[in-house]
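anyone seen this seq b4? input:
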Amino acid sequence: MATLYIDNKPYEVHSGNNLLEVCLTLGLDLPYFCWHPSLGSVGACRQCAIKVYKDENDKKGKLIMSCMEPVTNNQRISITDVEAKEFREQVIGWLMTNHPHDCAVCDEGGSCHLQDMTVMAGHAYREFRYKKRTYKNQNLGPFINHEMNRCIQCYKCVRFYKDYAGGKDLDAFASKNKVYFGRHEDGVLESEFSGNLAEVCPTGVFTDKTLKQHYTRKWDLTMAPSICQHCSLGCNIIAGERYGSLRMISNRYNGQVNGYFICDRGRFGYEFVNAPDRIRQPILNNQVVDRDGVLKEIKRLLQEAKVIGIGSPRASLQSNFALKALVGKNNFYHGVSENEHDMAELAIRILKEGPVRTPSLKEVEKSDAVFILGEDLTNSAPMLALAVRQAVRVQPMSDVSKANIPAWNDAAAREFIQDKNGPLFSATIHDTKLDGVATQTYHASPDELARLGFAVAHLIDPAVPDVANYPAELRKMAEQIAKALSSAERPVIISGLSSASDNVMKAAANVAWALNKKNKNTGLVLTMLECNSLGLAMMGGGRLDGAFNAILHNHADTVIIMENDLYRHGAEATVNKFLKMCKQVIVLDHTNHATVKKAQIIIPAGTFAESDGTLVNNEGRAQRFFQVYEATDVIQESWRWLLNMGVNAGNERMSKWKNFEDITKAISEEEELLKGVETITPLSDFRVAGQRIPREPHRYSGRTAMNAGINVSEPKPPEDPDSSLSYTMEGYRGLPPSSLTPFYWSPGWNSVQSVNKYQEEVGASLRGGDPGLRMLEADQKNEANYFMSIPEVFHQIEDHLWMVWTHHIFGSDELSTRSSSVAQRIPKPYVMISTKDAEHLKLGDGQLLAFDIEKQTFHLPIKINSTMPNGVAALPYGLDGMPSTELPAWGIVKKN
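predicted toks r here
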């Protein structure tokens, strides 16, 4: 700690930080543009000037940029010094010289960091009266709108896009006094994190194009804290609604999970909520019925039929639990493929019974050696890939520290490091975007990836069985990986379900467990396939095949399928047979899909925007999402529909539950692995100073005019019985608990940069702690029971290809594909094979390959990839038009 005097007032602060960070942490208002907590300092904008004095006798002092000056003990500075204030006012004047007067039409208007800082710096009138510099804007694809004339040359966009996220197609182009930030030509921004430009940019140069298409001022949005639905990492988001439709997703800071950023799938995949083909009315035998009509029919079925329930890895804990309670524990099935079911249970066993804990995304960023086994993270878990990109800088940054360069001095640190990266080893089926920063890469079949993992684990701990007759070249690679991991202070092993190989996951666990014997700081990260895959697995339930057999053997005749397209989890022929044999198929969902088309009863469920629920991410962190807006009477949360069904049918157990909290409490009491889940957010009767927390900002407008065509009087706002949030702009205006923060705002800070007012320390945890509760924590006292069975060498079979899945950030997720902006980025179906296999088959890029998988014939254009292992073919997971089958499996090539 150090004593810092600010305008002659002493403060105890952390030494080592820069003065701007410290001032913001103390709650003092100091303008800035180019600085960002995750990007560090470069001193480009000159806006954060302050006075620093030699000692208490120095009355003159000197101007410095606070973002470039470290804190020292007994240091004396002034923010309010007249010369410093005048300098800041002049700087903003220069920066605004060519800025257009377009706040009234700018997408950022009213939530703009530039506006805030202009007011804060005291720049009220413009003196420049001449022709302004203008630029041509670019078409940057479906996600980001470009308005270059608003640029103030802070360089933050390029620093995030290139330096932090590893993008290669956005840069600064300069000639004399003209600086242009964009691509070398019009075209789609290729980075999976491009949407963060809309929040990083302090002006309206880069804005959310999807919001622009149904534009609403941000202060007119009804907002709520939520959780991303599109992968297993559980990134925190803010969802905004206007006129009954979802308009925008923005980042919600969580110091342990996603920090300041989210990926493009999480930001732009929300439009499935507004899809024109959404299920909005109950349908009974192709006829629209009312709520009472469908409940009456289901009551009859529950009393007369033999009903089973199929849950979903994309539905909340509450919805899955309610279905389980409705049909009975022995009649509840998980609704995922056999392999996914087995691997999810294996993941729980590894994370719960093993001695190695799962680090958070923030902890992964701080790891100094990473070994990825079988995961293309950029496509399966994008924010984890972004964390790994920061991890490769950890070891080189130790050299920066030795050179007495502060870690926050980003320009100096990057100049010192150059292209040096720490140890990252990536073993995947084919090339990935992380290969560019990897120390060593290896591309092979899943079993060969597992064999590499077993070899590494044996070299770290001989108690792990060795891989017999392992090639010398691969043995040398294994030795390099083992040495780097053993030398690291905080090594992390990453694997997951994407490769669909339990051998790969077991090998990753062996490596982590072997390292843990010598280093208790070892971490193991296992990614899952969907947002609540781990939560569903922790709840317990039968296999999907068990549901099929229940119908096949007449143990049941009716099925309730909740938020699940079975064709994504089973072979088409098997699912067809199952649905045909059911006397009644009841589907409870919000999204139209192939399973819905086979149902006799269709019930409209609420999306995450219209629901309350809890998800468990891949690290076992339970997090709650809140209803953003109240849906119509017939669109309700799945759990509320199921609760009404149970009460209507006389289910005594369910009759005791009245609301969300009752169901959540029952989960905690009845599900061993989910004890305490009801504590992750305050109860619905929580109040601050007797007030609820408003979902609407205090500037929210148009409440009377919105419904003037119906009634000139303002209608009574809906009441929320399930949370302490209100659907109004009235309520408590201070800092709410971190899990209940619906938006960021502070006096003088109208943009997302106001998040610094909600943090214990800038860039650290939120006040009161980051949201969520870890439900799975490894006990380091546990003994490592190594997996001993090593897979055999992969052998190519003539006229056969070992079919595996490959994942795409745009296309593999079920919900985001229904977003019109994301749909423009989805690739066409294909089959990826190696150069050698293409030559053997005498096929070129784009030509059709015919093959059979379990008696199904497919014809797909080939994509040749030189990094693909011979004898292996990759099919893009989840794309429309792809085979509905369970992989990996042998495909029989049909020659022309």
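The chain has a mean pLDDT of 95. The chain has 26 helices and 35 strands. kinda curious what u guys think
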